[in-house]
Amino acid sequence: MSSKLPVTIPVPSAPVCSLPKDPLETITAFDCTDKNLQSAYALWDTVFRACWPLSFESFKKVLTHLEQPYHIAVYDDQGKLVGFAATQTVVSENAGQLALLMVHPEYRNKGVGTRLNDCCLNMFRSNGSSVMLGSTYPRFFCGVPNDDLGEQAQAFFEHRGYSFNNTVWDMMGDVSQYEIPKQIQERMIKENIWFGRITKDQTQELFDFQSKYFDFWLSTYKHHIELGDYQDILIAREHDENGRLIGSLILFCPGQSSPHRTDLIWTHESLFGSKSGGMACVGVASEDRGRGIGLGLVSYANSALRKRGVYKSYVDWVELTDFYGRTNYCKWRSYRLGAIK
């Protein structure tokens, strides 16, 4: 992504549309009060509980940490929330993201989803923002899930002008007994690679590295550093701890990482469970690829997660599934990436 000057995104005030007689045609701005969040969570539970069980705490954390949020809702004539949409705009890129759109099953095919989508698109277009389905960070979904409900949603969005391209995966790895394979250890010794944690005095070096090679991850690294999670930034250096920085990734362990993070929200026992963790933003300098450093970095991270008591490890938004498969990760769930072109 190319960086741009910061953009101030005006947030429309409620109500954002005129008030017709039918309450299902009324779009209301949504404030994140506890009462409102409980209502939205009840709708989530109705729509997604079977496949995507989620705690209220995680649901609230994602909604309340979206950047430049604009959330809207539809209520029935009894005041029950029956439709909801949440967006964020990544200000540095003026990137609009439709993080969530859901409609109660009893109120589908009544125009509720269409009106919610249209209001969000109007807001994005009035600010000149790009538009994608799902969100980057924080997020519920990075795109539209490839399950039965998600396939219905994909048809809904395609009919309204969205285009879909890549399929990406969330992956799961069992690290409860993980040991770094001997051949990977030997390769890293041959390549003279050192793995360890970032330290506070190396923060700017880390940011410079991300800016040069992975500018789209810079804000995430900065966010986690601001939270004080230095222990979760693993790095690769050439030769030793003072060598050239050539790779990095971010770890996450519930109960050990900052409680303000939303890296892994699928901790229900039917999904990843409480003894779970994960990694993200795995990157190696372009001139150093082909030396096995990425595989070594992931293997080192797997070992670190095991030592922290993690059983199941989570890696999301993956295109290179074969790469992670080499360290015993398997495909879990997939999504299609969608956007307005």
From TrEMBL:
CDD domains named in the record: NAT_SF
InterPro entries assigned to the protein according to its UniProt record, in alphabetical order: Acyl_CoA_acyltransferase, GNAT_dom
Organism: Choanephora cucurbitarum
PANTHER family from the UniProt entry: N-ACETYLTRANSFERASE
Top-level taxonomic group: Eukaryota
Protein name: N-acetyltransferase domain-containing protein
The N-acetyltransferase domain, residue ranges: 27-185
SUPFAM superfamilies with a match to the protein in the record: Acyl-CoA N-acyltransferases (Nat)
Pfam families associated with the record: Acetyltransf_7
TM ranges: none
GO molecular function, a single term: acyltransferase activity, transferring groups other than amino-acyl groups
